[in-house]
């Protein structure tokens, strides 16, 4: 009795249907039932063709990633299933819709023909999980699409449209609708034509098309193995060796490489993030009985860089949005910012000019709050000032229709205070977009003390619709991401005072994989912006009583060294090129003397990395202790998607897991002794201490 695979006969054509919701993953049970179905079909000489399709929103979206934690892929092996399909006595046609990814595309490639709905996306995204296509993808795709195009698809992992797949020869027919009718028609046409079956594994690879030195150039363009490039490099090797090996041997070579990648620390980290990103969208304990508010129209207060960027997210997803400003000039400027940004995307070929106009038509402007009174969601994105934002929230509470979700885009202010100003705290939520808001994937959804679960889930659903990776945060200074930044930047500055220079710090931090070192990052964001945050925190009494704390950024600010915008900050700039500035060294030496900090002639890169990473982990742990983040994975998702933490290291909390709690505690204690711990900088969080105790008990 089959449960996930069903067989339906239409005359001499057999329909084989996979029904494994939600995304029809190619799990062990599906493989087993599918192979049985093909064995039975092969034994039935009355079957003249098979159409393979899936129920629900997509064709098979990939192998079951959770099986990768096992030592080996459980039987039956996908390659055995594919062998059974290719060996069929009659044509097998795959009818594709939704996301045909990874093992799903490999399954389709094992069929003799492919018909796809125009909306289908096809790809081999394994590299984004730190693995390679492990079921023939590296060998079959180049046979259909050519080596260059196939390598491009596999090494960048992004899916292609059905139309592009057609142009590349990956699919044979693209239809706007009536997928099954088209697949059955093709089946009948193939039966009638009596042409030999198109078995992809037996097709020749066209080596003549490959330019001299192509594979080396390809490898040179990829990240090194220790920078997350292992899987992409293995893909290149598999394709290159596949040119000379018999198909069966090439499959074996591919499987060895797949297993190597699957067991790598990068893949474990990337798989952790895959599941963490999906888990992050859930409120623990809420179950699946969630009732949501419809969000079909949006208003944004403030048409500055942030407000316009936020508005673009909605227009991109087809949601009408109204930008509200206080004066005509600011409004026009905001709308023209949006247009310029869309036109730049069109110039790069990312969207068409028609799309530019379509999106612009979804963005309206107004100078009157009354015009957004009937919107389902209103986001204030005004200047980061408590009084200004309180006034806006009060006004929104007065004019918005009942049921409007009111959101603030604050990055640092108390969401509970703003919620209470609105007079509708249950309808109030924080939506912390990151700049540039139309580009950055991360959205911190901040739940105030009184925000209703319905509001949170509605906003999380909307976030997914606009393509954001969203994480729920409680209310605290800086929420999850910016709060963790504090200890990280504090240590970067102490290292400067102790004698390291910005180049060395950035090089060490970038060497461990961060997209940008702390000094370069502040110079880019603006020393003035960073210093004002520190000064404001100090004014509010939120900083340690340490006169040396963030003294470098304050001094740079006082001297007008605002970073890239003034061509001088932590570095001196020649255009965008950062140059070491000896004056900065002198300034740090002066500050060190003022604060009684001993300078050292050599500070190792290892120390720099540890000094910056340990506070990050420790603060992440405090955030968990306080219930600000629900799960360690949430913290990782924030830092990977918003702060350039290397995905192949899985985020700070995953890194902590890899390092081991005992090691972290002992390193914190080491720095507490060697650097002093007057202000509690190196005091371990309760979360870490508890975990260490729990591992003691367990072992
Ligand atoms: N394995 C296991 N679970 C998977 C999965 C997979 N390949 N793909 C999705 N899921 C699960 C998700 O974890 C989620 O579970 P949850 O509801 O318990 O959180 C559920 O399916 C729905 O997933 P999404 O929330 O992501 O659904 P969307 O509709 O937003 O997106 C999708 C659908 C585009 C298919 C997206 O799920 C996706 O990108 N999946 C991964 C695709 C992929 O990477 N495939 C390649 C796998 S590796 C492989 O095939 C190796 C092969 O070469 C041997």
* Strands side by side in the biggest sheet: 12-11-10-13-14-15-16-17
Distance between the termini: 44 Å
Q: State the name of the first-level CATH class of the largest domain.
A: Alpha Beta
Give me the Rg, rounded. 28 Å
**Sheet having the most strands:** 8 strands, mixed
Shape label: globular
Judged by helices, strands and strand pairing, the structural class is: alpha/beta
Kindly report the name of the CATH homologous superfamily of the largest domain.
2-enoyl-CoA Hydratase, Chain A, domain 1
The total of helices stands at 28
- Ligands, ions, cofactors: 3-hydroxybutanoyl-coenzyme A
Global mean pLDDT: 95
Strand content is: 5-15%
Range of helix content:
40-55%
Tell me the total number of β-strands.
Answer: 19
The CATH architecture of the largest domain: Alpha-Beta Complex
Query: What is the total number of structural domains?
Result: 3
Low-confidence stretches: none
Q: How would you sum up this structure, described in words?
A:
The protein is α/β, with parallel strands linked by helices and 699 residues long. It is 48% helix and 12% strand. α15 links the parallel β13 (377-380) and β14 (405-408). The two termini are 44 Å apart. The structure holds 3-hydroxybutanoyl-coenzyme A (3HC). 3-hydroxybutanoyl-coenzyme A binds at residues 22-23, 25, 58, 61-66, 99, 101-103, 106, 125-126, 129, 133-135, 137, 275, 278.
């Amino acid at each position: 009795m089959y449960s996930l695979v069903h067989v339906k006969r239409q005359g001499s054509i057999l329909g084989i249907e996979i029904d494994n919701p939600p995304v029809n993953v190619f799990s062990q049970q599906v493989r087993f039932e599918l192979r049985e179905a093909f064995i039975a079909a092969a034994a039935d000489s009355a079957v003249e063709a098979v159409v393979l399709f899936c129920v629900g929103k997509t064709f098979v979206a990939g192998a079951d990633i959770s099986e990768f934690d096992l030592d080996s892929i459980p039987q039956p092996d996908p390659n055995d299933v594919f062998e059974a399909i290719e060996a069929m006595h009659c044509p097998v046609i795959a009818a594709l819709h939704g996301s045909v990814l990874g093992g799903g595309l490999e399954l389709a490639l094992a069929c003799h023909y492919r018909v796809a709905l125009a909306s289908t996306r096809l790809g081999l995204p394994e590299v984004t999980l730190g693995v390679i296509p492990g079921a023939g993808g590296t060998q079959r795709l180049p046979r259909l699409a050519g080596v260059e195009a196939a390598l491009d698809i596999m090494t960048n992992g992004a899916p292609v449209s059905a139309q592009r797949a057609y142009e590349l020869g990956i699919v044979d027919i693209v239809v706007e609708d009536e997928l099954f009718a088209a697949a059955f028609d093709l089946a009948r046409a193939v039966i009638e034509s009596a042409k030999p079956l198109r078995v992809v594994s037996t097709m020749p690879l066209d080596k003549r098309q490959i330019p001299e030195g192509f594979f080396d150039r390809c490898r040179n363009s990829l990240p090194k193995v220790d920078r997350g490039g292992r899987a992409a490099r293995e893909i290149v090797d598999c394709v290159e060796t596949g040119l000379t090996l018999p198909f069966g041997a090439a499959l074996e070579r591919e499987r060895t490489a797949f297993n190597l990648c699957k067991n790598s620390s990068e893949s474990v980290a990337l798989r952790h993030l895959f599941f963490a990103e999906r888990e992050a969208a859930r409120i623990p304990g809420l179950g699946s009985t969630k009732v949501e508010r419809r969000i079909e129209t949006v208003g944004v207060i403030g048409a500055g860089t942030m407000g316009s960027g936020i508005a673009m997210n909605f227009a991109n997803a087809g949601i009408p949005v109204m930008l509200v400003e206080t004066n005509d000039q600011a409004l026009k400027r905001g709308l023209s910012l949006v247009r310029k940004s869309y036109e730049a995307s069109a110039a790069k070929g990312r969207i068409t000019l028609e799309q530019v106009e379509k999106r612009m038509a979804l963005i309206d402007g107004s100078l009157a709050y009354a015009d957004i009174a009937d919107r389902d969601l209103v986001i204030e994105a005004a200047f980061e000032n408590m009084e200004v934002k309180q006034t806006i929230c009060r006004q929104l509470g007065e004019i918005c229709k009942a049921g409007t979700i009111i959101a603030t885009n604050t990055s640092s202010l108390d969401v509970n205070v703003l919620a209470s100003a609105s007079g509708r705290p249950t309808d109030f939520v924080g939506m912390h977009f990151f700049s540039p808001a139309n580009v950055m994937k991360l959205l911190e959804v901040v739940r105030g003390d009184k925000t209703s679960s319905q509001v949170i889930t509605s906003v999380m659903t909307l976030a997914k619709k606009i393509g954001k990776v969203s994480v729920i945060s409680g209310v605290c200074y800086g929420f999850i991401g910016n709060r963790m930044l504090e200890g990280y930047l504090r240590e970067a500055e102490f290292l400067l005072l102790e004698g390291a220079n910005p180049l060395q710090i950035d090089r060490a931090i970038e060497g461990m994989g961060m997209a940008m070192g702390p000094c370069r990052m502040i110079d880019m964001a603006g020393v003035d912006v960073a210093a004002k945050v520190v000064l404001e925190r100090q004014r509010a009494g939120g900083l340690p009583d340490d006169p040396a704390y963030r003294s470098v950024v304050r001094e740079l600010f006082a001297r007008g060294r605002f970073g890239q915008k003034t061509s001088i900050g932590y570095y001196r700039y020649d255009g965008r090129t950062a140059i070491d500035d000896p004056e900065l060294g002198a300034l740090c030496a002066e500050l060190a003397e003022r604060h009684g900090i001993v300078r050292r002639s050599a500070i190792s890169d290892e120390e720099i990395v540890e000094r910056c990473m340990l506070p990050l982990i420790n603060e992440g742990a405090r955030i968990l202790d306080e219930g600000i983040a629900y799960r360690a994975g949430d913290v990782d998702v924030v830092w990977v998607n918003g702060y350039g933490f290397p995905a192949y290291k899985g985020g700070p909390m995953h890194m902590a897991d890899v390092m081991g709690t005992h090691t972290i505690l002992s390193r914190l204690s080491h720095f507490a002794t060697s650097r002093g711990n007057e202000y509690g900088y190196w005091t371990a969080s309760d979360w870490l201490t508890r975990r260490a105790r729990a591992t003691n008990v367990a072992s």
